Amino acid sequence: MGRRPLAEASAPTVWAFPRAGFYGDCLYAPLEAMGVRVLEGDYSAAGLAAIAPGDAVHLHWPSHLYSVGPSRLDYARHFTTFEWRLRRLHARGVRIFWTAHNLYPHEQTPLPGVDRRVRELVIGLAERIFVHGPSAEAVLCTEFPKTRGKCVQIPLGGFAAYYANDLTRAEARARLGLAEGEFAYLFLGQWRPYKNLPLLIESFARLEEPATLLLAGNAPARLAEEVRELVARLGRGRIRAVPGRVPDDELQMWCKAADAMVLPYREILSSGAAVLALSFGCPVVAPRVGHLRDLIDPSNGVAYEPAAVDALLEAMRAVRKQDYDRARIACVMNSVRWNESARATLAAMTMR
Questions:
Q1: pLDDT digits (tens, 9 = 90+) for 258-273
Q2: CA-based max dimension of the chain
Q3: Are 247 and 175 in contact (CB under 8 A)?
Q4: What is the pLDDT of residues 10-48, one digit of tens each?
Q5: Could you give the angle at the alpha carbon of 132 between the alpha carbons of 192 and 326, nearest 5°?
Q6: CA distance 83 to 240
Q7: 147 contacts 123 by C-beta, under 8 angstroms
Q8: From CA 272, how far away is CA 169, in angstroms rounded?
């Protein structure tokens, strides 16, 4: 008999929470190609009982499992259940791994201290914690010192091979009705309070030079109404707000048409939106925080210090003065392959 591949010989079955979604598709497809069995995690009592000792549970966003309302009693009950189930899995010899996509949930549980307690619980039980880059690791280790020695940096690959990628920039701009020479700023992604859209609109309104601001993505009703009111008051016909889910095959259109993606986040550990923009060659304006500190440099955008007065406004002014090589931006971002991410994940999961 020939020698068995590493995955077959020593890698555990991986139960992903969740398996579905663009991140899971990008990471787990090459992991499965290496021979690893990856299954969608089932959080029911029966589903968790099916996880065998030695198997791996890979958590991504733990709050999706315990931050369930609507009442405070419901939140408390779901938190208690999550804690008991995770400790039980660990006691049975199931191996726990966590990818720290964010420092805390962006929509925090309305019970004081619960989100921190869950982070501390997961960190205490996890064998390895995956982070996207050295700056994200530094932030995580500062907030949670017990992560030191457990973190493994996993490269975040480009998305151009995952999403439709067959439009030219001219075709994309024509579809959005952008005139030749019209500078277009873009915000793309879910609209959430931490993403700071009001500041973006207010900063854009103060720009002296002609430009268009495009806002697209899913939006909760209250924030969508706030944005509509701001656009009506400050937009002067220069802001197009399109709340609602952007189909996957249209993501390329927005990124290729825009001259710059603007992500004015209050806080962030890892940003899929920034990676998406760069994957299609679109420069990015973003605060110098978390993974963005490693991702954005003068060749692909403008990083600003979020605490500085008018920092976002000045960054939006600066980005339009640069001549970016969009083909090179896309090439560099997409040169990071998801099979490298999968290989690093597998190495960490087989490390003892």
A1: 999 999 999 899 999 9
A2: 73
A3: no
A4: 667 999 999 998 899 999 999 999 999 999 999 999 999
A5: 75
A6: 44
A7: yes
A8: 21
The pair of structure tokens assigned to 117 is: 């307690």
Give the predicted TM-score (pTM) of the model: 0.91
Verify that 318 and 173 share a domain, yes or no. yes
Residues 149, 184 within the same domain: no
If asked whether residues 49 and 145 sit together in one domain, one would say yes
138 with 121, same domain?
A: yes
Cis peptide preceding 70, ω within 30 of 0? yes
pLDDT one-digit tens code per residue, 148-162: 999 999 999 999 989
Between helix 114-125 and helix 72-91 the angle, nearest 10°, is 10
350: enclosing H helix or E strand: helix 338-350
Rounded distance, CA 5 to CA 87, Å? 32
Nearest Cα residue to 205 out of 243, 241, 231: 231
CATH number for the domain spanning 35: value is: 3.40.50.2000
For the chain, the average pLDDT equals: 94
Quick check: is 145 in a domain? yes
User: Can you read off the two tokens belonging to residue 38?
Assistant: 């990856």
Task: Report the half-sphere exposure of 86 (CA within 13 A, side-chain side).
Answer: 27
Contact between 158 and 137 under an 8 Å Cβ cutoff? The reply is no
1 lies in some domain: no
How many alpha carbons lie under 13 Å from residue 263 in its C-beta half-sphere? 34
Helix (H, G, I), strand (E, B) or coil at 7: helix
